[in-house]
User: What shape does this take?
Amino acid sequence: QVQLVESGGELVQAGGSLRLSCAASGRTFSSYTMGMGWFRQAPGKEREFVAAIRWSAGSTLYGDSVKGRFTISRDNARNTVYLQMNGLKPEDTAKYYCAASRYFGDNFSRAPSKYHYWGQGTQVTVSS
Assistant: This one.
């Protein structure tokens, strides 16, 4: 089993920055996880891919709407993945979820169905 706990979401003004964290635990985390991803979901909208990282090598993928503004990183020793969000816009308002997958790659990491473990989410609200 893998447990994921997100933190760092809050209310911020447009143009501001936030860093989200996702702490992973569980006996099988290291052996199970190939990739970690961040997704977001606003009310009435589908869950949207934000970013993903290959757990071992650190390769990254980004959604088009956040490319150049958000950065995903990880700390293997702490089993933690981060999402640094700069230049926030009101349209970034959503609940942000981290997830763990046994896959990584452009054909896999963008699809929520490829992630087996999910956190509870953390709310990010960007005011205009």
Summary: The mean pLDDT is 96. The CA atoms of residues 93 and 125 lie 5 Å apart.
